[in-house]
Automatic annotation (TrEMBL):
The lineage of its organism: Eukaryota, Metazoa, Chordata, Craniata, Vertebrata. Phosphatidylinositol 3,4,5-trisphosphate-dependent guanine nucleotide exchange factor (GEF) which, independently of RAS, transduces signals from tyrosine kinase receptors to RAC. It also mediates signaling of membrane ruffling. Regulates the actin cytoskeleton as an effector or adapter protein in response to agonist stimulated phosphatidylinositol (3,4)-bisphosphate production and cell protrusion. PROSITE patterns: PH_DOMAIN. Pfam families: EF-hand_SWAP70_N (PF25530), PH (PF00169). It comes from Terrapene triunguis. GO terms for molecular function: ATP binding; DNA binding. Its main location: membrane. This is Switch-associated protein 70. GO terms for biological process: actin filament bundle assembly; isotype switching; negative regulation of actin filament depolymerization; negative regulation of cell-cell adhesion mediated by integrin; positive regulation of actin filament bundle assembly; positive regulation of cytosolic calcium ion concentration; positive regulation of mast cell chemotaxis; regulation of protein localization.
């Protein structure tokens, strides 16, 4: 019922707007009375003139808007429609009210009757929005149906060529559609009669629900004779007439879900037979040829199948599907536009964020460049400082090595002389004890100096290693700057500790030199004593060597012979040296 109401409203809308002469959206009450009376007449609805007066009693004979008339129209007319009215008569009544005002004065290639049918078709195919328009997809569908009915399928190329002129954005109104078809733009080469037949065929299919029609022979039920009839197939009925002008109706074949159709063999000189079997009666039909027979059987079977499943006629079902598809595409388009708008806003926000980040990066890069410049300057200063310190340490080391080499040469000469004296005067105990003591001290000093030199070399190697690491830090990336700065501070502290250790070593070296000088003096004293004793021996006893028993204690042996110190004295000196080293560390 809802679909019927929408179709009726479309037609009534044309009549109402035709009565609105100044296009203000309002119509006088007297005109609405006439319109309401005519609507009730053609729709077979009881007319209640008092209801209209009651509905608009506060607006005496004044204009009434479309919104004000709609409640009355719905309540007192449309809700009472039962469907038992003549659709053509209803449409013709509304057409009579509006066509003279809206139809173009230019000559058309179609008759007024054909224009009326196109107008009715427009109401069927138009969108459910006001003002009514027919979208390009439905225009294309209608023109294709017309060209197929005219047998002119080649006009598809022409339609594609002129598609942009068919109201591609908003669509066409009913009068623009009539002018388009009446101009003959899409029916060139066709005469008026062919166009009229095509319009009538499409009108019958879309408006009158004619699924198929044509002449066939029907066998009578009483006299059993065969008579030619004009058959018209609709969704729930097959009507047959004396001729195609539909003036003399001979009967109906009521179709329901229990009906079926089957092919019959040729008999009684009749060919292409088929049987339509209903609950109370059967009908034998003879088609003109096998093709027509098969088409009618297929059409009737399809109609019965639709009745069984409760589906609407194919053209109405197709129209509904096209509308649903357009609504779906429109919803998808709106959703796509919404998403595009959101993406555009997000993109703009992202661009602003990127611009802010770019500015921040530029500022950070400028700050990093300044910091890098300062860091490089500091590194260069440290490098110069370390280079100077390394050169100075190399010079000190070289001087110490020269002194050690000189002392070592002097020590070698002295030891050589001592060896000679030991070989000659083994029995001189006092001189030998002094000599042993001097040698013990000399060995301790030499070991101490050797250890000091080794530690100094290790410290210098460590300093050189730190210096190389400091140079490598210059090549590091910005991500390691902070870590390098921390390492540099640690290394500076380590360098300070190393410098303190080096100063301690220098102090220990000076103490060792003082010990060395003491030992040297002792050796000189021992040498003087030995020389004095040698002179005495040479003077009194000649070169005779005295043989005396040696000490029972085991003697320590050095690289230059027997040591001048005992094992206990060596251990005591080692403990003293280790204690000094632990204190310096």
């Amino acid at each position: 019922m809802g679909g019927l109401k929408e179709e009726l409203l479309k037609t009534i809308w044309h009549a109402f707007t035709a009565l609105d002469l100044d296009r203000s959206g309002k119509v006088s009450k007297s005109q609405l009375k006439v319109l309401s009376h005519n609507l009730c007449t053609v729709l077979n609805v009881p007319h209640d003139p008092v209801a209209l007066e009651e509905h608009f009693r506060d607006d005496d004979e004044g204009p009434v808007s479309n919104q004000g008339y709609m409640p009355y129209l719905n309540k007192f007319i449309l809700e009472k429609v039962q469907g038992n009215f003549d659709k053509v008569e209803f449409n013709r009544m509304c057409w009579t009210l509006c066509f003279k005002k809206n139809l173009t004065k230019s000559p058309l290639f179609i008759s007024d009757e054909d224009a009326f049918k196109v107008w009715v078709i427009f109401n069927f195919l138009s969108e459910d929005k006001y003002p009514l328009v027919i979208v390009p997809e439905e225009i294309e569908y209608l023109l294709k149906k017309l060209t197929e009915a005219m047998g002119a399928g080649s006009h598809q190329e022409q339609f594609e060529h002129n598609k942009n002129s068919l109201g591609a954005n908003q669509g066409l109104s009913a009068w623009e559609l009539i002018e388009l078809i009446g101009s003959g733009q899409f029916s060139k080469g066709m005469d008026r009669q062919t166009i009229s037949m095509a319009v009538n065929e499409v009108f019958n299919e879309l408006i009158l629900d004619v699924l198929k029609q044509g002449y066939m022979l029907k066998k009578g039920h009483r006299r059993k004779n065969w008579t030619e009839r004009w058959f018209v197939l609709k969704p729930n009925i097959i009507s047959y007439y004396a001729s195609e002008d539909l003036k003399d109706k001979k009967g109906d074949i009521i179709l329901d879900e229990n009906c079926f159709v089957e092919s019959l063999p040729d008999k009684d000189g009749k060919k292409c037979l088929f049987l339509i079997k209903c609950l109370d009666k059967s009908f034998e039909i003879s088609a003109s040829d096998k093709k027509k027979k098969q088409e009618w059987i297929q059409a009737i079977q399809t109609t019965v199948s639709l009745l069984r499943v409760g589906s609407p006629p194919p053209h109405k079902d197709a129209r509904q599907k096209r509308k649903e598809l357009r609504q779906k595409l429109q919803a998808e388009q709106e959703e796509l536009e919404r998403q595009m708008k959101e993406l555009q806003i997000a993109n703009e926000n992202k661009q602003e964020e990127l611009e802010t980040v770019r500015k921040q990066l530029e500022e950070a890069a400028a700050r990093a460049a300044v910091e890098e410049k300062k860091r490089l300057q500091t590194q260069m200063e440290l490098q110069d400082h370390f280079s100077v310190e390394l050169a100075r340490e190399k010079m000190v080391r070289q001087q110490m090595e020269e002194q050690v080499a000189q002392k070592s040469s002097e020590l070698k000469q002295y030891l050589q002389r001592v060896c000679e004296l030991e070989e000659m005067y083994k029995k001189l105990q006092e001189a030998l004890e002094d000599e042993k003591q001097a040698r013990q001290d000399e060995e301790t000093v030499r070991k101490l100096q050797a250890r000091l030199l080794e530690e100094e070399s290790a410290k210098r190697a460590e300093l050189e290693k730190w210096h190389l690491q400091q140079q490598q830090t210059i090549l590091m990336t910005e991500a390691e700057k902070q870590e390098l700065e921390t390492q540099r501070i640690i290394k500076e502290r380590a360098l300070q500790v190393a410098m303190q250790q080096l100063e301690q070593l220098e102090l220990e070296r000076m103490q060792a030199l003082e010990q060395y000088e003491g030992v040297k003096k002792k050796l000189e004293l021992a040498a003087n004593k030995t020389k004095s004793w040698k002179d005495k021996v040479a003077h009194h006893e000649g070169l005779i060597r005295l043989i005396e028993p040696g000490s029972k204690n085991p003697h320590l042996i050095t690289n230059w012979g027997p040591a001048a110190f005992t094992e206990a004295e060596l251990e005591q000196r080692e403990k003293s040296w280790k204690g000094k080293k632990a204190t310096s560390e």
